[in-house]
Amino acid sequence: MSRKNKLYEGKAKVLFEGPEPGTIIQYFKDDATAFNAQKTGTLSGKGVVNNHISEYLFKALGNIGIPHHFIERISMREQLVKAVEIIPVEVIVRNIAAGSMSQRLGIEEGTPLPNPLVEFCYKSDELSDPLIAEEHILTFGWAEEQEIDEMMFYALRVNDFLSGMFAGIGIKLVDFKLEFGRFYEDENCITILADEISPDGCRLWDMKTGEKMDKDRFRRDLGGEMEAYQEVARRLGILPSADVTEIADHKNKTSKSRS
Ligand code: UDP
């Protein structure tokens, strides 16, 4: 890891220069943060599980024609992606009231929404990612009108597809966050899905028991975070046993001690 040129370190991932121009390596860390990094922790093996879950979901979305940055997974914790200019807007899709929306509007958590709701937040750690309207995005030039339309369109398609996929494995997709980027190809600039999709940025509830299988386990001190993330991976048919993350961690430690 030390030989690559580090471009950026975020809360859950580190970005390194990729092997070819226009590529980036995303390294998934075990660090967990909540409430704008006021709460921090380490979930051993989270990076490995999220790397695999995100790979699986991006590939599946690619198969239905959603353009995305994922190229290939290159190790247990790393994936090669296309370099994009991240649009500074988080796109949140909600099917069931939960989290900040429940608090903000006094709607009981668990209330199904009559239609999927798309919200935008301005990506700013200093401002704690405030909720914004489309007009703010246009007024401050964070994205063009066409880009907003594309983000909305893709977000709703991703929601339809993932809702069905998760329902098929007994999980309700309550809400999730997406990020998009500008990818420059010759003269053209296209909007593509970027970042990651994993239980860190989704709310996933077990359909039978209502158990939370996502980062709310960490946010709300419920415990059992890794068991829940691994159960999501297991139901998706990836990471069939918990041993995989243990092996990855062991390898990681031995390669670190060698370097
Ligand atoms: N989310 C995220 N990153 C953020 C904000 C939200 O991944 O910076 C995800 C979050 O995990 C949840 C959805 O977006 O699945 C909606 O989050 P919400 O607005 O309810 O905020 P929270 O309750 O997480 O503060």
Can you offer a commentary on this structure?
The protein is of the alpha+beta class and 259 residues long. It has two domains: 6-84 and 224-246, 2-Layer Sandwich (Phosphorylase Kinase, domain 1), CATH 3.30.200.20; 86-206, 2-Layer Sandwich (D-amino Acid Aminotransferase, Chain A, domain 1). 33% of the residues lie in helices and 32% in strands. The protein is built from seven helices and 14 strands. The site of uridine-5'-diphosphate has 14 residues, from strand 9, helix 2, strand 12 and strand 14.
Q: What characteristics describe this protein?
A:
binds uridine-5'-diphosphate; 14 strands; D-amino Acid Aminotransferase, Chain A, domain 1; 259 residues; alpha+beta; 5-stranded antiparallel β-sheet; Phosphorylase Kinase, domain 1; 33% helix
Largest sheet: 7 strands, antiparallel
Quickly give the CATH architecture of the largest domain: 2-Layer Sandwich
N- and C-termini, Cα separation: 9 Å
The string of secondary-structure elements, in order, is EEEEEHEEEEHEEHHEEEHHH
**What's the overall geometry?**
globular
Bound heterogens, unique: uridine-5'-diphosphate
The percentage helix is: 25-40%
CATH superfamily (homologous) name of the largest domain: ATP-grasp fold, B domain
Structural class: alpha+beta
Per CATH, the class of the largest domain reads Alpha Beta
Question: Domains counted in the coordinates: how many?
Answer: 2
